[in-house]
Amino acid sequence: MAIPIGSRLKKAWNAFLNKEQEDASYEYKDYGSSYFYRPDRFRLGYRHERTIINAVINRIALDCASIDIKHVKLDENGRYLEDVDSGLNKCLSVEANLDQTGRAFRNDIFLSLLDKGTICIVPFETDKDPNFYDEYDILGMRVGQIIEWYPEHVKVRLYDQRDGQKKEIQLPKRNVAIVENPFYATMNDENSTLQRLVRKLNLLDVIDEQSGSGKLDLIIQLPYVVKSEKRQKEAENRRDGIAAQLKDSQYGIAYIDGTEKITQLNRPVENNLLKQIEYLTNLMFSQLGLTEEILNGSASPSVMQNYFSRIVEHIVAAPVDEFNRKFLSDESRNNKEAVKYFRDPFKLIPVENVAEIADKFTRNEIMTSNEIRQIVGMKPSRDPEADKLRNKNLSKPAGEDTSVPEEDLDSRISKLIKKKGADQNG
Asked: Does the pLDDT value for residue 202 go beyond 70?
């Protein structure tokens, strides 16, 4: 129903017009700390940020964040039954905090995990004190960096959304989720393959900066021997004189004596650094199970399936197991509650195979027609038969009501009458 114009004008609000009224009613309002960049956003370490490792880590984190994590209810056989309406489920799927959606929060978890190796997921806001209650609901969560380790506590650097500052606080280990990268030995250990590759890439950057620094790399041959201290000073003065000529000249031109010779080193010094980088890159890809096709998006479904099963699911399972251990009480687990992750297997299936798979799933009574329609992005059918697990290729079993509902029968009769009348008029 349309809102009357009078009520709409009374309740209307405009961010620019009403701002003047707010400013007039308050002399000064403190909004807290301000920044030119987003202060709560996670940033990769300096050693990773300038290398190709940034792209690899970000690609894996995005694929991990695409998998849904939910707080669910299980049946007596441990199978998924329904979602639980809880704060934990809201944090994982809708909104984790003031700055992050559920998907952005999951991406923050996996990006931090791959970069740091070990992270801490902190429920910074709960309905009850976790130090005194085993059963509590989580209202807000953030990813923190562990600074120090204690026997039963950890010191965490965590963003405080109340004042926009990152603070270091000590928290009990039993109240926070401490997650370690399952590929820590390959990616984050001090002498791991990935860290060795990062050091080699940083060395390559240093060499590139030196080669592009604008140096001429000249050798001047003087017409006298420079072994004595006096001759060395004369040679240094001569070198400084030529450098001053090149610097002060508009076109970079200098003159030398006819007995002097200049040799320019205009070729780089050869080394095997690039070969070492290529070897370490291939070794890292083989140890993680990555390929270049996965990164550039041209991998086949079988390769992507292997990538998800060997890499992505192991990384996603790490925080999920910790959520089940720390954020669900014994009573909740006894009530068949759990945190599970769900991956859509149809994302890797080509379009031409969807019809065949849909036929097999409906014919073998695995999925209903409406469930298949949701996967391909179609609206569910209103036909009651579309919500039944039944093989449509077989006739209905004996004793089942096969009569057409009365209202459907009337509508069909009216359609036939209209069609017959149209044919006669034609």
From this structure: yes
- What is the C-alpha separation between 389 and 215, in angstroms, rounded? 76
Q: What angle do CA 67, 328, 121 make, to 5 degrees?
A: 60
For residue 126, the Cα-to-chain-centroid distance in whole angstroms is 25
Closest CA to 393 of 355, 362, 353: 362
Q: State phi, psi for 348 to the nearest 5 degrees.
A: -95, 5
> Domain of 378?
349-390
Residue 413 has pLDDT above 90, yes or no: no
Task: Indicate if 161 and 178 belong to the same structural domain.
Answer: yes
The answer to whether residues 137 and 32 belong to one domain is yes
> Cα dist. 268→83, 212, 264, 295, 371 in Å?
63, 11, 12, 32, 63
Q: Which residue has the tokens 């039954």?
A: 81
- What's the total number of domains in the chain? 3
Residues 109 and 123 in one domain: yes
Read off the amino acid at residue 33: S
What predicted TM-score, i.e. pTM, was given to this entire model? 0.73
Inside any domain, residue 73: yes
User: What residue type is assigned to position 126 of the chain?
Assistant: T
CA–chain centroid gap for 219, Å, is 52
Same domain, 365 and 243: no
The answer to whether 413 and 384 have CB atoms below 8 angstroms apart is no
Percent pLDDT > 90 in the chain is 29
Of 81, 86, 137, the C-alpha closest to 336 is: 81
Between the alpha carbon of residue 189 and those of residues 61, 116, 193, the distances in Å are 19, 10, 8
6-15, 91-100, 290-299 — which is least confidently predicted? 6-15
Q: Which amino acid is at 41?
A: R
| Closest to 190 (Cα-Cα) out of 113, 111, 276, 117 | 117
110 and 44, same structural domain?
yes
Q: Give me 170's structure tokens.
A: 């000590």
Cα separation, 348 vs 294, whole angstroms: 12
Q: What is the pLDDT of residue 95?
A: 92
Closest to 115 (Cα-Cα) out of 37, 43, 35: 43
One domain, residues 143 and 197: no
Question: Residue 62: which of 316, 410, 271, 372 has the closest Cα?
Answer: 316
CA–CA distance, 370 with 58 (Å, rounded to integer)? 35
164 and 172 in contact (C-beta within 8 Å)? Answer: no
Hunting for tokens 């300038």 — which residue is that? 50
